[in-house]
Amino acid sequence: MKYIKKKLTIEKASIQNIAARFGTPTYCYSYNQLKENINNFKKNFKSFSPLICFAIKSNTNINLIREIKKFGLGADVVSVGELMMALKAGIDPKKIVFSGVGKTSDEISYAIDKKILLINTESKSEINEIERIAKSKKKIVNIGIRLNPNTDAKTLKQISTGKKENKFGVDEKTFFNLVTYSKSSKNINLKCLSVHIGSQILSHKPYEKMLKVIDRIIQKSNYNFEFIDLGGGMGISYEKNNKKLNYQKYNIAIKKFLKNYNSKIIFEPGRSIIGNTGSLVSKVIYIKESDKKDFIILDAAMNDLMRPALYGANHKTLPALKTNQTSKKTYEFVGPICESTDKFTTLKKFQKLNEKDLVVMCDVGAYGMSLSSNYNVRTKPAEILIKGSNINIIKKRQKVEDLI
């Protein structure tokens, strides 16, 4: 995304033309950025050729998943709906991993029938249920066991998953017990050790700690795991002061780890693949003046982009048309929903705005639309994919009539 003759553009499409053609709010995705992200990810880890399973929860647009599938990626799913979507998008079942702490019997049954690569289990009860269903179907099911390595990912507490107080995975003692139990089962085949320590991780150091824990656990368990699923969590730069995760240092740590093991690495990236491909175009409805700041009331709201309300996340915000005027007052960008948390960001020295001007919130490709809702009986935005000068609607804007 860049300014061309003072007009903000995504590839060859200006934000002004997009808004005129498709209305606002609208989610826009850059195909070239998606392609660059996937190729960069593959290049950085090509020395051990991991199986890359895109985390469907980060973006559930089936047309984007179809594009991702064309690059040979698999899928990480956490519900039967996500599994169905991955299969409908054409992803090979043997490249699908089913994660999550609370899979229902119906979900497990469906996954077994579809012969997916792995069901990553998170408790003894879940293994027992898989075993019961597999026995009734006279099948052997491939599973992984998710270890909680008690590793602090140094990320937001709301998206930390690898510490002992988090609900995910099992502790060391339970892990060893489940390995022993699985070895004696006739209907489950333990193939994978799985971990995932959190999201939006910007340092390779938590991953290095995680790998040391895994190394110790594997040696202690004396079990040959065909797959080591390292999860995802690779962060992106949302703000100027954000560091970028050093893939090369993470790659070095994994190569060092693999010297002792003949295992296939699985990754489950979501944000790092799709995050910076997406932008949300919105229009200024009203400017509400007050003493210390002006409220910039947008037609986008927390139902369209939940991350700021949910995590206190910040998204870089840009004007669609550059001028040389700067506002003397602080701007608080808010939506029209009847909640105090329906606000996006507060900025000083922003470009002076007028009502009906367009603004763009950047890096919303991950957990933007997938966390959206119909709160206040508001319709979800349209989604478009931009490929050079070609623009395709990949999801139509909802109509109020369809909600009522």
Describe what this molecule looks like in 3D.
Helix 5 crosses helix 6 and helix 8 (205-221) packs parallel to helix 9 (247-258). This protein folds into two domains: 2-29 and 275-403, Lyase, Ornithine Decarboxylase, Chain A, domain 1 (Beta Barrel); 32-274, TIM Barrel (Alpha-Beta Barrel), CATH 3.20.20. The protein is elongated and about 70 Å long. It has 404 residues and is α/β, with parallel strands linked by helices. The strands form three sheets. Strands 4, 13, 14, 15, 16, 17, 18, 19 and 20 form a nine-stranded mixed sheet that branches. The chain has an eight-stranded parallel β-barrel with strand order 5-6-7-8-9-10-11-12, surrounded by five helices. A three-stranded antiparallel sheet has the order 1-2-3. A hairpin with a 2-residue loop joins strand 1 and strand 2. The chain has twelve helices and 20 strands.
**pLDDT averaged residue by residue:** 94
Give the tally of β-strands. 20
Which CATH architecture of the largest domain would you pick?
A: Alpha-Beta Barrel
Q: What is the number of independent domains?
A: 2
Strand content: 15-25%
